[in-house]
Amino acid sequence: MRPYDYIELRIPAKAQYIGVVRLAISGLANRVGFTYDDIEDMKIATSEAITNAVQHAYKEDESGEIVVGCALYEDKMEVMVADHGRSFNFDETKKLVGPYHENEDVLFLREGGLGLYLIETLMDEVKVHHEEGVTVFMTKYLGGEQVDQDVEPITS
Amino acid sequence: MDILVDVLESNQNIQIKVNGEIDAYTAPLLKEKLLTAQETEGLNAVLDLSDVSYMDSTGLGVFVGFYKAVKANGGHMRIVGLSPRLKRLFDITGLGELMDIETAGKGEVNNETI
Predict the structure, then answer these.
(1) What is the pLDDT of residues B23-80, one digit of tens each?
(2) A114 touches chain B (CB under 8 A)
(3) Are the Cβ atoms of A115 and B57 closer than 8 angstroms?
(4) Residue B24 to residue A51, Cβ atoms within 8 A
(5) Looking at residue A74, which CATH number applies to its domain?
(6) For chain A, how many structural domains are there in total?
(7) Is the pLDDT of residue A112 over 90?
(8) Residue A90 domain boundaries
(9) Residue of B2, B25, B89, B110 for testing the chain A interface, max A β-carbons within 10 Å
(10) Is residue A79 part of a domain?
């Protein structure tokens, strides 16, 4: 059995649905046991990622979809926002995302302003995958960042 | 109702009270309301955000645009009624240093945690 519950939301790439996803994120984060402040942080970070997708992923005459995937663990919550509309294989996509590179993805995402900066500041881990659209992958740990998790022992 | 923007205007003094959520959906309406006011020379604008329950970078963007325009026309913009959550947004983006902002309940102990 996988160690998390997975919930996926699929919304039209329209601004009026951002607030709806925020409500869902709030409810899900509450189930994991996050504090009020952590939940508010996650609502903002998720909204920023969706806003970016709404504003940049599709041309005005195109109708597209945004997929928001949430993985609920005992001690953390992962939120993935993908602007390419198709349902993704959560585990596969997670393997593909890597740290963003200052010069490429950031410029692309930052044209809207402070969005990615806020995502980085409010979440514990952020990864951006830029292929067939943009996928933003964010993690928030229960009770703050746990830096020693998943870190390989240093070998000389 | 996602957002409600009340504008009280008398000559160069303008009071704007925002209710609700400011995000990519509601920001255009807020922006539109501010656009009509910002061209006034020597405008003295007070924005009351005490009933704003949610705001993200789209809201900050609107206020930055308004701040710049008001300043360019020799006016002043003040933001009042910031909850600890909203204050935090202004602080982590550095806008709190730049703008004239005031938290809600002056003199109260700020229990904000980082």
Answers:
(1) 999 999 999 999 988 888 999 999 999 999 999 999 999 999 999 999 999 999 999 9
(2) yes
(3) yes
(4) yes
(5) 3.30.565.10
(6) 1
(7) no
(8) 5-141
(9) B25
(10) yes
Residue A148 lies in a domain: no
Which domains are seen in chain B, by residue range?
3-78 (3.30.750.24)
pTM score over 0.80: yes
Instruction: Establish if A146 belongs to a structural domain.
Output: no
- Residue A72 inside a domain? The answer is yes
> Which residues of A, range 7-26, sit inside 8 Å of B by Cβ?
15-16, 18-19, 22
A8-12's contacts with Cβ under 8 Å and 24+ in sequence apart are A8/A67, A8/A68, A8/A69, A8/A70, A8/A87, A9/A67, A9/A68, A9/A69, A9/A70, A10/A65, A10/A66, A10/A67, A10/A68, A10/A85, A10/A87, A11/A50, A11/A65, A11/A66, A11/A68, A12/A63, A12/A64, A12/A65, A12/A66
B110 and chain A: CB distance < 8 Å anywhere?
A: no
List the single residue in B23, B57, B89 with the smallest CB-CB distance to A18: B23
pLDDT category of residue A132 using cuts at 50, 70 and 90: confident
ipTM of model: 0.86
